[in-house]
User: Fold this.
Amino acid sequence: MGMRLSTAILPIHRWGQGQKLWQRAEALGFHASYTYDHLSWRTFRDGPWFGAVPTLTAAATATQSMRLGTLVTSPNFRHPVTLAKELISLDDISGGRVTLGIGAGGTGFDATALGQEPWTPRERADRFAEFVPLLDRLLTEDAVSYEGDFYQAHEARNIPGCVQRPRLPFAVAATGPRGLRLAARYGQAWVTTGDPRLYEDGTPEQSDQAIRSQADKLTDACAEIGRDVTELDKILLTGFTPDRSRPLESLDAFVDFAGRHRELGFNEIVVHWPIPDSDFAADQKVFERIAMEAPAQLR
Assistant:
C-alpha cells in the first residue's frame, strides 16, 4: 500500500467559503480531510473559529467519498456520552466516512474555557484512560451504564450505532506510555506530530530519531497485549517538526520528507491547507501540485 496523503482544514471559514475548500480537497484526491476540535486555538483565538462536529457534518453533505475526521478531539471540553451521540449521527450522515482522532488534550484555551483550572499532565492521562474505553463502549453497545472517577453514564442509549462496524475508527494521538497503551488496545491508527521539544532548535535527523523511538514504543505496547502493530495505521500530522513548512516548498521537498517518514513506518501524511500570514502559509499552486502528484511517487 502506498503512502496516503490527507489534509487538515482549520475551521476558520464561514461555510460559504469553507464548503469550497472541502470540495476542492476531495477533487484534489486527498484520502481524508480533518479539522481541529478546539474551542479556539493559539494565534487564531481572536479570529473566526467554528465547531468541529457541525463543520464535519456540513462537509459530509458536500462531499462524496473522501474520509473526514478530527485531529484531534480531547476530554478538555467533551463528555463521552454526548460525544458518542454526535459521532454516531455524523457517521450516519457521512455514510461511514468518519475517523475520530482523539488525544489527551493540553493546556491551551480549551483547558480553561469552561471555568476549570487546567488539569495536570497526570490528571489528563487519568481522564484519557477513562474517556477512551467508555467511548468505545458507547459506540459499540446499545445501552451503557458506568461509574468512574471522572465520567458517568446512566443507561445511555446509542441505537442504531455506527454505520462502520463495530464502530468508527479511533486514531489515537499519543507519545507517552499510558497513551500508547490506549492506542495499542483501542486504536485503528496512531497519530503523532513528532517531539515538540525539537521544534525550535532540533534538526530533521533528531526528529526522525525521536519519531522512530515513539514508533518503537508503540510496537512494545502492542506486543504487551499480543497485538500486531501493523494492524494500526501510522499518521503524521505535519507542521510541528523542525522541518516546519519546508516540505511544502516544492514537490521534490515533499516527496523527500514523506519518503523519510514512510521508512519510519508511516502510511498517512497530513498537511495543513494553506492559510496566508500564519504558520501554515504555503503557495497554493505548489500545495495542489503536491496533492495531485506526490502520491504516485510514493507508491
Q: What stands out?
A: The CA atoms of residues 251 and 290 lie 5 Å apart. Strands lie at 4-8, 32-35, 67-73, 98-102, 143-147, 152-157, 170-173, 189-192, 233-237, 268-272. The chain has a mean pLDDT of 97.
